[in-house]
Amino acid sequence: MNKVRVNLGERTYEIFIGRGTLARLPGFIRSMGFKGPVVCIADSSVLSKTKALIRPAFAKVRNRVHWISVPGTEKSKSLKVYRETVHKISSKTKMHRPLIIALGGGVIGDLAGFVAATYRRGVPYIQIPTTLLAQVDSSIGGKVGVDLPEAKNLIGAFKQPEAVFIDIDFLKTLPVKQLYNGLAEVIKYGIIKSRSFFLFLEGNMEKLLSLNRGVLEKVILECVFIKSKIVEKDEFDDKRLRIVLNFGHTLGHAVEAAAGYTNAYNHGESVAVGMLLAGEIALRLDMLAAEDLGRIGGLIRSAGLPVRIENVSLAKIMSAYMHDKKFTGGTNRFVLPRKIGSVEVVEDIPETLIKSVLRDHAV
Ligand SMILES: NC(=O)c1ccc[n+]([C@@H]2O[C@H](COP(=O)([O-])OP(=O)(O)OC[C@H]3O[C@@H](n4cnc5c(N)ncnc54)[C@H](O)[C@@H]3O)[C@@H](O)[C@H]2O)c1
Ligand SMILES: [Zn+2]
Fold first, then answer.
1. Among candidates 324, 226, 231, 225, which has minimal Cα distance to 270?
2. CATH code that applies to domain 176-360
3. Which of 13, 122, 123, 309 is the least crowded, having the fewest Cβ atoms under 10 Å away?
4. What is the pLDDT of residues 271-309, one digit of tens each?
């Protein structure tokens, strides 16, 4: 088992990565000296599919455990589900301060984390991420929140967990589309921070897709390490360092929104296309070599992810992009690759260039 420490002063915590990490949960709660009730906010489908993994660990938790089952769909990241959840917690735990556990993908992690950040002005919580995306991305860094109809993640907080338990056995039941979803973020880390990791992915994609244990552990460890180092330097996202994690997300998000958040383009697929579009913009600005862009496209394709825009109107993508821009203070800011392993923030990319790149990548 591997461990990564996220150094954030008094909010420092550890991320446990490997097989069987869940077995450490009861001991960890004991070591916190926490005697109150535990409330596990869990993805309903994870609860039904991974009983054999969850039961033995929770059976050894000495605290009273209450379960709140929530569907793992984006609709659960809403004020409505938030309200229902806090009401359930207050009626189950009465006046006791609970320890919250988030068991599920990014949806559950964001919702449960936001509950923990706000219920009784903040209570401790633990992340147990069960999708690849949540294991390499959303469970680390303390960004929690819910959506509003006008935009995603509009209500939120920074709330670091007490610990994160990443058990790779959860990925055995994960639908393959969800695996690809997480792989887009995995590839992102290689492009933004580590050429050697990118090369490792090039050489091991098949093993990764078949959930080879050694490769999976190394990949998750590397991603967690890269993200935590960025978070350590910019915990509250106010130093313009966390922004590199948005690589591929500017146009990617526009594609995702234009596709109507349907199965046509899920988050990872949209980010995959978004990374390629950002690479193409960098190429045309003479920032990136054609060879590197070719390798980026090759790795994305080898992970089963798309590199072109299909069946989504370019006008809709542009209008989603303009809508997002409104919510980021009207700035036109892109994270663009200089080379594999290094990116730069560039402002004021001409709209004509964005449109032309979109046109050239549409089928
Ligand atoms: N807080 C952050 O820093 C951050 C970063 C990235 C993404 N996010 C958020 O994460 C969310 C997406 O998370 P996600 O991609 O994990 O999606 P998700 O939580 O919706 O899970 C995807 C699907 O997989 C199912 N599932 C989860 N674990 C499973 C398992 N082990 N076996 C079988 N099925 C399983 C879920 O029920 C769901 O149907 C978005 O809301 C996004 O905004 C947050
Ligand atoms: Zn993402």
1. 324
2. 1.20.1090.10
3. 122
4. 999 999 999 999 999 999 999 999 999 999 999 999 999
Q: Dihedral of CA 284/198/182/142: which sign?
A: negative
What's the CA gap between 75 and 81, in Å, rounded?
8
Looking at residue 197, its amino acid is: F
Its CATH architecture, for the domain 2-173, is 3-Layer(aba) Sandwich (3.40)
Nearest-CA residue for atom 2 of ligand 1: 138
Q: Is 38 helix (H, G, I), strand (E, B) or coil?
A: strand
For every residue of 291-322, DSSP letters joined together read HHHHHHHHHHHHTT---SB-SS-HHHHHHHHH
User: For the chain, which residues make up each domain, given as ranges?
Assistant: 2-173, 176-360
Instruction: Please check whether residue 318 is in contact with residue 308, taking contact to mean a CB–CB distance below 8 angstroms.
Output: no
pTM, rounded to two decimals: 0.97
Q: Is 159 in the pocket of ligand 1 (CB under 6 A)?
A: no
